[in-house]
Design brief:
It contains seven helices and two strands; from the N terminus they run H-E-E-H-H-H-H-H-H. The chain has about 160 residues and is mainly alpha-helical. A two-stranded antiparallel ribbon has the order 1-2.
Length: about 160
């Protein structure tokens, strides 16, 4: 919301957790204008750092409402129901895991969210992948404090 509405850096940004019974990833993705690459990345970093400490009771109620409503809509189609059965089979989940998941969401507290965010939203354990114009942005990325940026794919070939 801050990137899109507050700053106008992007038309959209998304985030989410994915994984299996053993591990998973947290991903944030967005497309931003080249000239605000550093500023956008810094804002995401700040949001992550302040997520737990800044999480309020209002945030909790909004989040619970969204998750519970989206969970109810997630099983409206035959394909979605098939996906649910695949999850039950693949991960050995109980048949009422959807109800269990809803109970977990309903039982979440602000303190629990803060604790989980402190544990899992650790920027030092994250891989930050920024795709863009290396000529204009690579050196600016040093300002984030993550160390020396690594150029993964230089489309221009080796320097002469």
């Amino acid at each position: 919301q801050q990137l899109r509405e507050g700053k106008g850096y992007t038309y959209g940004i998304r985030s989410g957790f994915s994984g299996n019974e053993y591990d998973g990833t947290f991903t944030i993705s967005s497309g931003v204008r080249t000239n605000v690459t550093l500023e956008s990345t810094q804002l995401v970093k700040d949001i992550l750092n302040n997520y737990g400490p800044g999480f309020t009771e209002k945030d909790l109620e909004t989040t619970k409402g969204f998750l519970i409503k989206s969970n109810a809509r997630a099983f409206e189609t035959a394909g979605a129901k098939l996906n649910m059965l695949e999850n039950i089979s693949q991960y050995g989940l109980p048949y009422d895991y959807v109800k269990e998941r809803e109970a977990i969401v309903r039982g979440m507290t602000v303190d629990k969210i803060r604790s989980l965010s402190q544990k899992y939203l650790d920027e030092d354990k994250m891989i930050w992948l920024v795709v863009g114009d290396a000529k204009t942005q690579l050196n600016r990325m040093k300002e984030l404090g993550f160390g020396e940026p690594i150029l993964i794919n230089d489309m221009t070939g080796p320097e002469k």
